[in-house]
Amino acid sequence: MQARAGEPRPGRRAQTVTVDSSKARTSLGALQRSLRQLRWKEFPFGRRLPCDIYWHGVSFHDSDILSGQVNKFPGMTEMVRKITLSRAVRIMQSLFPEEYNFYPRSWILPDELQLFITQVRTVKDDDPSWKPTFIVKPDGGCQGDGIYLIRDPSDIRLAGTLQSRPAVVQEYICKPLLIDKLKFDIRLYVLLKSLEPLEIYIAKDGLSRFCTEPYQEPSAQNLHHIFMHLTNYSLNIHSGHFVHSDSASTGSKRTFSSVLGRLSSKGVDIKKVWSDIISLVIKTVLALTPELKVFYQSDIPAGRPGPTCFQILGFDILLMKNLKPILLEVNANPSMRIEHEQELSPGVFEIVPSLVDEEVKVAVIRDTLRLMDPLKHRRESLSKQSEQSKQLSTAGEDHGDSELASAPNGPSNFESQLPTICLKQVFPKYAKQFNYLRLVDRMANLFIRFLGIKGTMKLGPTGFRTFIRNCKLSSSSFSMAAVDILYIDITRRWNAMTLDQRDSGMCLQAFTEAFFYLAQKKFKMPPLHAQVASLVDLCEYHLALLDEKRLMRGRSGTATTTGRRPGSNTPSSTQPEVDAKLGPCTGGAHKLTTPRHTVP
């Protein structure tokens, strides 16, 4: 069997994948280990020619990339900051409160400081026995920096620092699951492989980071004991009780699988724990993706050259005593270091390998690269050709190609030596169970459609009026003058709350608030998610009709002027199917209500 001109001959080694690691920073060690295992070509100082994959340590904007793949999404760092994440989850909580009760009740400070104080005092007046604890997390903090616990909302520290350092204050989880009398959290690695279509993978193993002081419920005497209450590795490593261990099941940092094994030995339903965690991850990503799409079209507008993106996220999750998972935060740049500092004598440190980190992190990076392999389809084609060559060789034909195909370095032979991929696809695999939650995602598609100018992230007044007009939302009781007032009122308030003043206009969160107002005005029967779903369906329906009319005009025009094939610009939007069947809601009610912005 002969190869056609321009095609690789069967059995020959496929072209090597090239990776630019010049911006990899602290993930460099694990990345290099992964590249050696894959036998890919690393360019540690960059390359004049384009590379297949660019591995950045911090941001999508680490360098200008016009092709290939980059391991960061535009806007991800901003989206998972504590305030932005809280706002994104809050929107989902207003639509689906029971589905999103895995995130602690939160207030954004200083904007909601008075609201926080008022709500807590109101609940205390109704129930004097309620003695809550709250945790304050600076918005820009990382590795436990600036986090502290309070019991009184009027704590002087709040008033003193919030003007210069905005923060999120949350209800503190007082009854965590303990192992060896120690509080711990879970760092799970989640691969966002694609935004459109949405693809999510979860690593089958993660890390469990333990506190270094036996846990006691918060009291006035122990609020300042950070080694008891905060699970951050970067804090506890400075404790005199921190235990470095090469074992996956002992020490202050262990594999999550070892913790699950221990729980399983006590009769815990591990499948249920994993199922709840997967649900939490999918729902959190669904809360983040609407605004990520806005960032993405701003940096990589449709029709312009640019890379495709993927990203490994670090989800920090706490298991409560009843085994319910609680989301603590999401990290855009989770540490991928596979070594740690060990103090040999006072002030003298040595860098030593961390076998627990290496076991988990190298597998995550290696298998992320395998999933993103730009030459994967070519390798699969080579493998098929090699198999066909072997079959012909068995029949006594083409012995030369047979030898090439069976060479020890052949592509199919090498791939079979690698471990099974440690990343499990959870979306779109479980999409049917969660698609009803994608209301805000559909609203973001409407928002992006009416932005008008490629690259902008805010909707101007003309774009908002066009949205109202095209979706036929104005009426005798809601004139275009009222539309303008609504736009000005909401946009002004949101611009005062956000730090991003690069563009003037209505941001996605402001558009969401306006959309909620319109839904409540047009559809009187609650609940809110049903009102919003009805309005989304209505908007998509009118826009589909508008696109169909434009298409018909375009067909008649192009048939006579350019001779292009009719239908070549068929729009992607069609009349939406109403998904009225909502999944089951689980979870209990909260004492405190979620703060919500409403239009006066």
Written account of the structure:
With 600 residues, the protein is α+β, with helices and mostly antiparallel strands. The chain has a domain at 438-561: EF-hand (Recoverin, domain 1, Orthogonal Bundle). It has 19 helices and 19 strands. It has helices at residues 28-38, 76-79, 82-95, 113-126, 156-161, 226-229, 233-236, 256-265, 270-299, 355-372, 376-394, 399-405, 411-415, 431-434, 439-449, 461-470, 480-497, 508-522, 528-561, and strands spanning 18-23, 41-43, 53-56, 69-70, 106-109, 134-138, 148-150, 167-171, 178-179, 182-194, 199-203, 207-210, 253-255, 308-309, 311-319, 325-331, 339-345, 348-353, 423-427. Strands 9, 10, 11, 12, 13, 15, 16 and 19 form an eight-stranded antiparallel β-sheet that branches. A five-stranded parallel β-sheet has the order 2-1-3-4-14, with helices on one face. The chain has a four-stranded antiparallel β-sheet with strand order 5-8-6-7, with helices on both faces. α1 packs across α10 (355-372) and α15 runs parallel beside α19. The longest helix is centred in the last third of the chain and has 34 residues, at 528-561. It is globular, with a radius of gyration of 27 Å. Residues 1-13, 398-409, 562-591 and 593-600 have low confidence and may be disordered.
